[in-house]
Write a structure and sequence with these properties.
It is a single chain. This protein is mainly α and 76 residues long. The chain contains three helices and no strands. The radius of gyration is 17 Å and the shape is elongated.
């Protein structure tokens, strides 16, 4: 049994978390855009849903990035 706390972030885990940030920032808006484009075609609302989901993708990406940075800084 190790005496490590499970909430602590190891160096390798921290590297993994921080290198995932560019992918999150890029993929969240892309997924939002294509989902919005699909829904626009289905409901004939061009370009509103693709724009709204693109913006929500940016917001989700930024929120997740902030969460990851806070988690990586919690190591003492």
């Amino acid at each position: 049994m190790t005496d490590k706390e499970p909430s602590k972030v190891t160096a390798w885990r921290q590297i993994g978390l921080l290198t995932s940030i560019p992918f999150i920032l890029a993929l969240a808006p892309i997924v939002g855009y294509f989902l919005g484009k699909f829904l626009d075609q289905k409901f004939r609302t061009q370009p509103w849903l693709s724009f709204i989901l693109l913006v929500l993708g940016f917001v989700a990406g930024v929120r997740e990035t902030i969460h990851i940075v806070k988690m990586s800084q919690s190591e003492d």
